Structures are given as structure tokens and as C-alpha cells.
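Q: Start with the shorter request: fold the first protein.
A: Done. Sequence, then structure:
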Amino acid sequence: MGRRPARCIRFQKNKVFIKSRFCRGVPDPKIRIFDCGNKKASVDTFPFVAHLVSDEKEQLTSCALEAARVTCNKYLIKTTGKDNFHIRIRAHPFHVIRQNKMLSCAGADRLSSGMRHSYGKPTETAARVEIGQILISVRSKDTHAPKVIEALRRAKFKFPGRQKILRSTKWGFTAFDRDEYRRGRVEGWLRHAGNIVTYVPAKGVLTKRNCTPGRNDSSGSEEDDDEAEEAEQ
């Protein structure tokens, strides 16, 4: 029996049904790679980032996620080169899709039991997504921004429903805006950690890591001035 179309499993109907010791025999998802491109590139290399965001509450099969990843990856390799981007698939297919397989051959009405014992068997997996959830993120250089947006537009055709392409104001895959990121890197309270950065807190036990000179110079200078005035009085 062939694979059913996406319209049969597109909408979220019941509770999440995941692979467990009670649900066995689940086939592996089609998508096995969630990061492709130059994924080891430094966080300072790719400042631009764009997201493909879901605009519907629905289910996306692992086959659709793999097709979108292949389309986006192939276009960016062709237009920008294999080392000038980093694609990350943000949706993971954990929900198990069951199917009550029916016979469609001659004399099937004599052999099949219809809707009796209709609890289906696992056939594939899907990702349950919400409105506003990020499906695919791509970081690259600012010069390749139009090509990244075009790659996400092509990947959008592999999904059912509506999606939006959003251009982020953050620096790469970090949670900091561009101006805040530059200031943090200069002042030392943001430290390089592969393709992300780590935040060095100003509070807590004093160590060599969080004793960064110049972080609170403005507040410290004001306190020094106040102490000097009190001493003079």
C-alpha cells in the first residue's frame, strides 16, 4: 500500500503519540541530518540569519522536512558555495503516525474487517508545530542575504499550509542584537564558544572569568566621585 498524501495527516487531532516501550516498530524518520553547511564556522563569521516560521498549527512529516532541507542546501551550495552558510532544521519529528491499512485488491470486502479493530500500525513520524514556531534557520554573511531568503522561499513549497520568512535582527544563532553583541565582545562579557557565545555574568563569586575590566566603568567612576566629595566635606 502506498504512502497517503499529507492532507490525511496534516492537522493535529489527538494527543502526542511518541515512540516508547509501548509503541514499538516505529520506522526511522526520513530526515537524519539537522545541521548542514559550514556548521563549525565561528560565531563571528556569519552575522546574518533568517528564519522560516510556521503560520499554522499543523503536523509536518519527516519526509517534508527532509525535502525542504535538500532543496535549501542544494540552492545555497550552487549560489554561495558550500562553506558560506549554515542551515539548522529546528522542528523534530517525534509524533508517530498510525495507519489502518486496508486491502484494495479484488475480493477485499471478503478479507478485510472494515472498521473493526481499526487501531493502526506506525507508518511514519511527524513534527507538531505551532503558529510562530521556527522551522528552518539559516545563518550566513550579509552579502548572501538575498540568496538565503530565496533558498527559504524554495524550501517553503515542500510544506503544507502557510509559512513566513523573517529576517532576524540577532547576530547569527545567538540571542543578542547586533549592537549588543559587538559591545559584549569588546567589553568581554560575551565569549566565543564555537558557533554560539556564552554570557559571563557580572554577579556571583569573583573568578578570572567574570572579572572583565571596563564592564562597569561608568558606575564605578560615579561611585568614586561620590566618595571623593564625601571625603572633601
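Q: Next, the second protein, separately.
A: Sequence, then structure:
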Amino acid sequence: GGATPLPWPPVHTHVEMMWNVDAPTEAASNKQFYYDFPARSMRVDNNNFQSFWLNDTLSMVVPGVFCQQLQMGFGMMKPDWMVSNATNEGDLWLTRRLQRSPGYDHTRWNRKSALPDGWFDYFSTFATGEPYRMSAPSPAGKVVNEYYDFTPQTSFPAGTFTLPDTCTKKPSTSTSSLKSLFAALPHHSLHSSMVVMTAVHEAMQPLLAHIDGHQKNSVVAAMQTLVAQAMVDNIIMH
């Protein structure tokens, strides 16, 4: 029952508050999304860290300091990444850790397999189908993304998705490719996404040297979750 979960608006902004279930004392991460699927462009601002996913290239940036670019071989998540081919598991009353008002909300629960590593659990508002929260496995532990302030846009101002100078200069830019890794993986389960997320973590090492210690775990988890969401669209589901 309940309203069918809505796909994300094809052009929009929203906020995600992310926290790690396995590290409850860590501060939540506040992520501002700029999402333009028709242009295959996405930008996420996360405190003093940014990421840009433009076509098949994921750029991770400490502004003015360092830029790590990964040739992924696949692009950003689609608007219906957790709506299509998901299993309806019924409804639940949930709260959000960072809820702006107290109490519980009636939600619809959709699930996709990430076996043997767990599940992608996506919750939408029961009455309207609007995004509510998502939990997902990652090598950094189970993370929860709480969704707020989905605001459709007609377009974005010029320069919204322009890479900062840090990504166009040497030696502040490091580039590597995961295309061959992705092409060689079996496409029969989301277990493959764990392999790619681990590879993303390894490829991030030059970047992580420029990030404060207390923020490293949240940055790694944020990027692995971002990749996991895109992987849902790029691996055949069973």
C-alpha cells in the first residue's frame, strides 16, 4: 500500500544528512546536492569537500588544495535508481535521526539486494511517495542518508558544474581509471559494487592525505555511497 515512490526530479537540489550506523558518535555529514540528469551533471558540497560527477568522470575536490579524478566508465545515478525493479516490503513507521520535528512518520519500504553484503533499503513518505531516507552497506559500514528539501529546478546558473581550478592544474590533480576494473566484473549482483567501492577508497588515498583526520571516514563513506547508488543502475538485478 501507500503512494508509489516518486523518482527524483530530473533537475533539482536536495540535502542529504548522512551518518554511519557503526560509528554513532561521529558527526553527521551535511551534503548539498545539485542534480541535472539530462546534462549528466551532479555536484555535491560536503563541508570543505566537493564532488562533481560529469558524464563518466568523478572528481573529488578539496578546493584550492587537491583534486582526485576517477574515470568510472559509468555515470551518475538515474532519477528512478531506487524506484525501478525494487521489491515493496510493506510500510514502517520511522523517524530520522536529524528530524526537524519530533515523532514518527509513515513510510513505504522498498528494497534491492546487495547480497552477500546486505540490502539497499529505500523509504518514501507513505502518503506522497517523496524520498524519506535510504540505508546501504559500504566497506566503511552501514550508512544512512536522510533526505530533505527536494526542490525541482528548471536549470542551474552558469558555472554550477564547472570544475574548480584545482582540477585543471598540476600537480594538484591526480587521475586514475576504474573502467577496466568495472568492465571485468561479473554483472550478476551488487556484490560487484563492493569491489568498485573498495577500489574507490584505494584510489582516494592521494586525496585523503589533504583531508583532516576527523573528516576522512565521512568523506570515504559519502563517496562510496554515491558510487553504490550509481551502481544500482549499472548492474543487472536479480
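Q: Describe the second briefly.
A: Residues 49 and 219 are 8 Å apart (CA to CA). The mean pLDDT is 82.
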